[in-house]
Design goal:
278 residues; Thrombin, subunit H; 6-stranded antiparallel β-barrel; 12 strands
């Protein structure tokens, strides 16, 4: 009877011993084990990503000529819109350079955009991350900002040989210095995860008391301030909603509605800062 009771606790004893042994191991050894396991697992994730791309390719090949013609017309319209946007950006960049020379301001850092496919998404109560299909072999550094057409995606927190882990802007571990569009007063932003079956959200702190949201149809845009040296100024983070009094009473807090496309991204752009020209 005593042996039978002792046998019931045997799994817990083994688990306790394993946990204690893991805690007593050196940090360098645990880091090596973690990195080795990740690099061993990476080819499996990459293979599944390539298989999905191949499946999408053959799905597109199976479409009729009429569907392909309609898709081509849509792409032609998009290309025309992008060409106009590119010309507008060139004129704006020329104006910025003219003002910098006139005011003798230091030029902003230039970035190289590295396009990467999304391999895996990890959205749960603990993590708000994605894995992209490029790493150190493609020059991806840790801490590089990641963006898409809708604004900020997050930043690179782990760079492996073939893949990189990106902490999303909805993660509570990511904080940004932001401003409201048209207002230069800094505001603190942090991620707040994603609601169940809903879009990702964030929280804005230290919002000035004179900021008001009058119409829900025109929510104020929250953009990066450029402070901190990670994100350039002007990238959209989200939109303010539901102002409420902050803890100290001198500022307000607000919910930030993020782009719902963050949960279904297929491609992102990593901004790699270029060295300054001599």
């Amino acid at each position: 009877m005593y042996k039978k009771r002792l046998g019931q606790f045997k799994p817990f004893v083994v688990l306790t011993i394993a946990l204690l042994a893991w805690l007593l191991l050196p940090v360098a050894f645990k880091t090596f084990i973690k990195t080795s396991f990740y690099e061993f697992q990476a080819p499996i994730n990459l293979t599944s990503s390539y298989v999905r791309d191949l499946q999408s390719y053959w799905t597109a090949r199976a479409k009729s000529n009429a569907e392909l013609y309609e898709a081509g017309q849509g792409l032609a319209r998009l290309n025309a819109a992008y060409e106009l946007t590119a010309l507008e950006n060139q004129s704006l960049e020329a104006e910025i350079r003219r003002l910098e020379n006139l005011l003798q301001l230091p030029s902003r850092p230039d970035y190289q955009y590295e396009i990467a496919r999304v391999v895996e998404r990890d959205f749960n109560a603990w993590w708000q991350r994605i894995v992209i299909r490029k790493g150190r072999d493609h020059g991806i550094p840790i801490g590089a900002p990641v963006v898409f057409v809708g604004g900020v995606v997050g930043r690179v927190v782990e760079a492996h040989a073939y893949t990189s882990v990106v902490e999303l802007v909805s993660s509570s571990r990511l904080r940004l210095a932001v401003v409201i569009e048209g207002d230069n007063r800094p505001i603190s932003y942090r991620g707040a995860g994603a609601r169940s079956f809903g879009r990702p959200v964030g929280i804005a702190e230290f919002v000035p008391l004179d900021i008001q949201i009058a119409d829900t149809a025109s929510l104020p845009r929250l953009i990066t301030s450029g402070m901190g040296g990670v994100y350039p100024a002007g990238l959209e983070v989200g939109r303010l909603r539901r102002l409420r009094q902050g803890a100290g009473g001198m500022f307000n807090d607000a919910d930030v509605i993020l782009d719902e496309r963050l949960a279904s991204l297929t491609e992102v752009a990593v901004m790699i800062q270029l060295p300054p020209e001599p």
